[in-house]
Structure formats: structure tokens, C-alpha cells
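Q: Structure for this?
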Amino acid sequence: MDTSLAAPYTTAFGFERTVGPQIGAFLAGLRARRLLGVRVGEDRVLCPVAEFDPVTSAATGDLVELEPSGTVTAWTWVDPREGWDEPIDSPYAWALIRIDGADNTFFHRVDTGGDPARMTPGLRVRVRWAADPVGSIEDIVCFEPPAEPPVPGATDPGAEIGEPVATIEAPFHVDYTYVAGVGRSVYLRGMAERRFLARRCPGCHQVYFPAPDHCARCLQVLDAPFEISGTGTISTFCIVNLPFPGQLVDPPYVVAYINLDGTGNKLQHRVLEVAPDAVAVGMQVEPVWAPETDLEPSLASVRYFRPVDPTLRVPVADQEARDA
Amino acid sequence: MRDIGVVAFAQSGCRAANRRDDMADILAPVIAEAVTSVGIERGDIDFYCSGSHDFHEGRTFAYIESLDAVGAWPPISESHVEMDAAWAANEAWSWLQLGEGDIALVYGIGRGSLASDPDQVSHTQLDPYYLAPLHPHRHAFAGLQAHALLATGTVTERDLAEVVARSLSAAVENPHAQRSGVHAVDDLLAQPYVASPLREHDTAPLGDAAAVLILAAGDRARDLAANAGRRPAWIRAMDHRMATHYPGARDLTRLETVEIAARRATRMAGFSPAEIDVAELHTEYSYAEPMLAAALGLAPATTINPSGGPLAGNPTTATGLIRLGEAAARICDDTVDRALAHATSGPALQHNLISLLEGERR
């Protein structure tokens, strides 16, 4: 078939990221609903605070407290995105704001209640604080035009600035489509039918399982698929003793490179139904398929490999049989 | 300096979403076309260098799959940059300048279609403390820069629409273009904003494609190009400069990195961007064209993006390399004698690579 399988998948990491001492102090200020700047060189102030002067690369100096207000210097008007947890429901601006007393500009949102006409050059804005500040740039929900000119000294004095923030949460989440390609789709479709479909290169006669569409050695398009038994020989292996999130089998267990009979490459898979210390290079193994109802176009249709010699087999623990 | 030139350029068509091929299969025919055109075999290539980005692919070390398209057995000498492949060309050019070999193959593979929502990917290139957590729209920094540019009064929204109209009209002649057509400027201006003052057509359409360049040195380059009925497009200079990562720390209306890179490239090449015939600019946004033209000091008669440029097709990490290929191709086929190629990376034209190319009488 000249079409490819494709499937959605998500990559996500729950990263935590350390911040520098100056950035940590700035974020601690936000947590207390106070806006800090930092001195650089003779007479300049940066807000947000940087660890190093972007012009001279020198370490930045003393922190100074600034009024949480400023002037818009540039903006772009956008609509809130569907499927995103946007803090503003109506259209808003991404803007550069020169904080009063600072020499650089601050990138953040400006909310004018959904009215783009209120975005004008030199627009005066002030910070709208988050209800529950945690020590993150998101403690500022956005900037907004003041309803009326602020009375000096009447602004929220904020809380005591505590210890500098040491780390911030930096999650990563992207939804992707995996495109297997016409080559690998052949073997994947075979997996859903309990078949191992291999392909041979007409140029160098290398046999691949799984097979891409063309030979990675001589670049020729591979011949038509043919079925192999799925039995093979352990080429090398390791015993996994380390637990990790998402693990399908309780350690210890064996992961092996298996040279499937009739192919020239190696397939990585689990080897179960055998005591890990009884596994050896050269051991003959055979596939154990998932039940009919669980078959899918995936290598997961082969739950694991086991020794061909029944005398070497030991029953898999109930847990492993269920999870494998 | 050695004479190092482009002797072959090939690319696949820019597609909004290729759902048929894996990375190697997109690349393999493009490599074959470039290699075959100059009458060499794989074994003749001394060095491979590529550019792609895992965040577009969604898998770590995703580019390894692309090595299946170059035949990496027996082992080859190769390298990879996690960015636009124009920088892979810069690495290969440096490698050849160092005398490590005579022929290098550079490829870029870009797949902008795999992430379901490009906004989930774009923020990963940003400052992780102050910018990425806000998840800005992917056009946010371009919108800001365009707004700042328009506020100077030197460029109007109509100018931007004219850039789009000219680019898409030029792309009609480009069989690899993803988007092309003849548009009236007033019709373009009637479209809604996606990130004001930018409209959809002001932004380059993300997609999937691969591009391949073959670089060669000295007489080897002359021979290879002659095999294809071409002349080498000598890369007389390459220079790249990067601005600081926080957009609020720089003047967005001034491309100092481009000015510096262009000055240094001019010294290296012996001719300036003002003396070239064709410029292929990595304009992921329409507003970038007038900004770059001004920063480079291009002469008014310079032909800009005769291919249609990125506004006609933007296969992420192959887009900058295609600029180099398109610029070189016009020297290789004797259309012009001098050309400039520009590539960019990062938000709001943060990092810029300038190449000056030249043909010789044959």
C-alpha cells in the first residue's frame, strides 16, 4: 500500500528550572506583588531584571524597587487561542512596556477590555497582579490602563519580599502527529495481523525488519515484503534493574537485541519467561503475541520474546504477564 | 581562502503537510537529484552536514533517521546543527576552508506540519524565565517588530502588502512553492489581522520539505559544475551575528546584527551587498524584507526573492538553506554574477547569517 500510517502522540516533560540569583530576587519580588529593577553600568536600570548586562555582558548590580506602571512602546493585537488556558478571555495585545524608571522594555500582555482602539502610542499601563502569586512571571496577569491617575502612595505596598526564588516550573507539552512513512507502515500493518513482514534490498541483499522504504546502505528502494517466522537469536542483551516511570515490566528483566532469522539487522525487545541470569548470547527466542483483541499496528503487538526451548522457560509473574 | 562554491542545489516541493513520507523518504530523492546532477557518487563526498530541529519532529535525535537517506554505512564524516540548515552550510564551508576535504553535501529537512499547534513549539525558542512561560502567540514578536517598524514612518502596511503580492506572484514560476498567485494589494489589505499589523499572508506558511546543496573546492568545483552544464557559485564570504535573547533589550527597528555581518562579509568578499544583482532573504514575515534591505544597504535595482521567498514556502529548518540554494542557482545558470543569501533564526530576526556569492567567467 502506498500510504503511510499516522497517529497522534504527545511529548511532555515536567521540567523544573533553576534561575539565577538576580532573576530569583526579581521573581521573589513578583511573589510579594512588588516590581524590582536592576542597576547596570553607571546609570541604567533594567526591568525585568537580568543576570548580565545584555550590552556589556557585565554582571548586573543592585536591585531597585520600581512603581508597577509604565508606558507601551509597541504592541500587536491578537485573539485568545482556542484550547489554551488564556488568562484573558477577550482579544488583547502583546506589548513592550517601558516600566517607569527603566531603560529597557518589558514583554507582557496588555488588556484593554477587548478594545484595540484603546491601544495608542504612549498608553499608560500598570500591573494587574495574579490572585495567588507563586514567584513566576505569570504573577503578572497583564498590564492594563489605569482607570484614573494613581494617587502617590496609594498603591498597594505589597508584601515583604522573602527568599529569592530558586526554581520555576517549566513544563513542556506538544501534541504531534507521527508519520510512519510508507516503508515502516508495511511492518506495522503486519503486526496488527500477527505477521512479521520483512523486505530485502535488491542491491546489497540486506534484509530489514522493521524495513524502511529504501536501503540505508545503498539507498535502493527495497523489494516487496515477505513473511518471516519471527524467531531469532539473541545478539546481545542487558538486564534492566532500574525502575523508571512508565515501565511496563517490573525489574529485573531482560532487554535484548534479537537477530530475527532471515534478517540482517537487530530488533530490540524484551525477553521474558526466563530467569534473567539464564539468558545468553546465542539463545533462540520466539515471539509471544498479544491477545487477538489487543493487536494493533505497533511492535507492542509482540508482547515479548521467550526462549524457544521450553525447558528454559519459567512462568512470568502474574504482574509481568498483565503489564507486558 | 580557498575557492569554495555551490555546484548543485535541489529541493522537494514545499507541502503544507506530508503525511506519506518519513524524514529519510522526503530527503532521499532530493539527495539523489543533487548528487546525480554533478556526476559523482556517494563515495566522492568527504563530509555531510545537516540542519533540523527535534522540537519540530517531536523526538529526540530525530535527525538520525535522515542519515538513512545518505547511506551512512560504511561510516561517514558528518555533523548536524539543531537549527536552520543554512548554518550547516556555514559549517561545511568552514570545514572545506580548513582543507579537510574537497566535496561536502549539506541538507536541510524541515517539517513544520507535525506539531498540531505551532504555538506549542514556538515558545520553546524563547527565554525560559520571562518569555516562554507566557506562551506568546507564535507571531507575537514579529507583530511587535512590524508595529515598531511601521511606527518609524518609513514603511506602511501597503508596502508590506506589496511585498506579499510581488513574492506570491514571483512564486507562480517556482514549482516548489507552497503558496503562489496574483493578488491585488487592496484585496490583501482587506484581510483581517492575525497579529496586527500582520495578516495571514504576511506570515510564511509552515510546511514540509527538504533541500540539498553540494559544495566543492577549486577545480573540483569547476569540474563538478561543468558536468551539470553550470558554473560554481563561489561563496566569497559568510558571517553571522546574534542579538541578545530578550527582545525588550534591543531596538527592534534596527538590525545591528545584519549590519555587522554584512560589513564583515563585505571585507571578506571584496564586494558589498550594494553591488549584488539578486538577494534571497529569509523573510518569514513580509516586514522583514524592507528592514533587511535597509540594513544590508541593497541597491533599489536589486531583485529580491525571485523564487517567491519564504512567504511562498517555509519548511522550517530548510528555509534558510533554500535561500542559499536559490541565490546560488542564479549564478550557476549565468542569470547573474553576484548574489546575496540571508538566513535567520530566533524571534524578531535575532540571529542573522549573510553570504555573498559570485560567479566567474567561463
